[in-house]
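Sorry, can you check?
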Amino acid sequence: MSSDPWGRVDETGTVYVRTADGERVVGSWQAGSPEEALAYFERKYEGLVVEIGLLERRVRTTDLAAKDAEAAIAHLREQVDQAHAVGDLDALSKRLDRLVRTVEERREERKARKAKQSEEARAAKEKLVAEAEELAGSEQWRPAGERLRALVDTWKGLPRLDRKTDDELWHRFSHARSAFSKRRKAHFAQLDAQREEARKVKERLATEAESLAKSTDWGPTAARYRDLMAQWKAAGRAQREHEDALWSRFRGAQDVFFAARGEVFAERDAEQAENLKVKEGLAEEAEKLVPVTDLKAARAAFRAVNERWEAVGHVPRDARPKVEGRMHAVERAIQEAEEAEWRRTNPEARARAAGLTGVLQDAVDKLRGQIERAEAAGSTARADKLRRELEGRQALLDQARKGLEEFSG
């Protein structure tokens, strides 16, 4: 007979295992010694230990489903309960009990984790829906469209919720996308119509611009081109495939006209620059007549210079006031000399000046006599008053005499 703490072999070769419930027959051994029998059945026990250890590791380190783990535990428990093995079977049962609790804990953890993930997914989808609904009213067509496509990709990467919630959120999300797409389609349809209208307008403008390209009516044509350009800008953009071609025609016609005008204006400017030099020389010649000493000669000389002046063409606009001002100044000086000569030689004016001088002289002589009489009478106050009056009359007399002298040359 042979035994160890967990089992024994009796004299008939029957093998027993010891458990908390007592001994249980696990087999019979007739082929060798009792020690070999125990070793054999202990190896079977070690096999169970290995299987339980592997299951424990799977439960701890993998995503083994709870129902699969429970099925594996039940299978091992049945093996332990009916094991033809010698070892601490009670310890194995306890390990399986602990493993059951572990599986249950992991089930609860997984359930909580799944609930959390579901809540996070719901919150994420609600956020996507809210953003999509906000974008549905946007008129930033390209960025909003790109963002909505990105939201769809994000949605696809999120876990599904319960069917009712997921369907409700998806309905709102899809409705927002559809609303944006409809608005975008309507916008671009309207834009296409506007661009087609712009194309028609610009076709007409380009045609008119081309018809004006060879015009030599510089001022009105340039003004018309400015008006056409204003209409072009107000027309808006045509379709991309037409806009550049129409602009090339429109701009090309303008370039032809303004290039031709530029050549003509350049020739005109050169001619006017030469005219300016001539007129500056004539103005300098005329200025030598001032101050006027011989009115008749100055008048004749200015007339001759002015005739040559009139024969010269236009000068640059910005130089015209200055050079013409010089000639006008000489003309005014001669006119003033003529007026002075006329005043000097006018008989009627001389007679009026002489008469006024005589009247003032008589008044002065009369006042002097009155002053002498007042002084002789001792009337000092009256004499002072008469002297003040005499001063005023004397000033007028001096002025009248000066005017009379002008008539004497």
Remarks:
- The longest helix spans residues 163-212.
- The chain has a mean pLDDT of 89.
